[in-house]
Specification:
Number of strands: 13
Radius of gyration: 21 Å
Structural class: alpha/beta
CATH superfamily of the largest domain: P-loop containing nucleotide triphosphate hydrolases
Largest sheet: 7 strands, mixed
Bound molecules: adenosine-5'-triphosphate, magnesium ion
Distance between the termini: 36 Å
Strand content: 15-25%
Low-confidence stretches: none
Amino acid sequence: MEEPIIRVNHLQTYFYVDSRISRAVDDVSFSIPKGKIVCIVGESGCGKSVTALSLLRLISDPGKILGGEVLFQEQDVLKMNTKDLHNLRGNQISMIFQEPMTSLNPVFTIGRQIVETIVEHTLLDEKQAWKKAVGLIERVDLPRAEQIMTSYPHELSGGMLQRVMIAIALSCDPSLLIADEPTTALDVTIQAQVLDLLKGIRDESDMSILFITHDLGVVAEIADYVIVMYAGKKIEEAPIIDLFQNPRHPYTKGLLKSRPIIGQHQDRLYSIRGQVPDLSELGQNCYFCDRCEECLDICKEKYPPYLSDGSQHNTACWLYEKGELNESASGTN
Ligand SMILES: Nc1ncnc2c1ncn2[C@@H]1O[C@H](COP(=O)(O)OP(=O)(O)OP(=O)(O)O)[C@@H](O)[C@H]1O
Ligand SMILES: [Mg+2]
């Protein structure tokens, strides 16, 4: 794989509520190559946001990062002092969220909010920062930049606000942008435009993007590499084409089957039976075995190891060994 901008090793983040422990992120490892878009996909509650927030150490009570490493330019974020951490969050890694309104202050103009961010994180004065802000507004393809600068958040549409958030995120020229469901609240055409914008920015600036979504349609649009999470675990990862053409884990296959296919009549959309387990009640077994159509005896006893065959496509499933379908295991259902 290409040189990574960030490497996450054995990340473990748990939540402690009423003497119960939710294993929200459990032993998750991955890297994000420079200039590439990595998508994390999985059902609600599987640990996508907690993974993203852990990279910036934005986990607070009742959550706790228990272990692992987050190596950014060879420095472990989990061990950084407050000053380095502040610098990392403001200047190297930016984050955008699903709801732009909650990140913007309704009583200040867009311009003032962008200028403030720029002044805080650079050596520019207000006048220079204003100029840079106008440039950023233009860069995210918003028309009449000067007019946008003097508008208040409620005067803009959801799609425009998400572009403003992207402009703010870009103001420090980050080398990594973390985007947590940034298009989920937008309608489909606007969503497609925002995805195109992010791809364009990636292409022209070589920025890396960690993109979180539960929508495989969005993954297909934007990802270079995909990580599939299930119940706090990474269960499969692959370059985009491999994942769609040759999914391995029965959960990934289920997700792909649950997608509506354009031009193909489906009486009823497939859905994976059962529900995601409670993350505070996980046993020794594979967490997906109750819902799995290919479950083996061993799956009910032992969680499968995450096997790497030296390629970029790997999975944690007893059906596979070294990337090949495990013939001795299959068929003993
Ligand atoms: N503030 C919290 N208090 C207690 N448990 C939490 C908290 N935040 C997250 N968790 C636990 O972590 C798990 C993973 O949450 P996370 O927000 O990462 O899910 P997600 O994959 O982002 O879901 P969604 O698609 O709905 O955003 C939850 O299922 C829950 O068990
Ligand atoms: Mg989330």
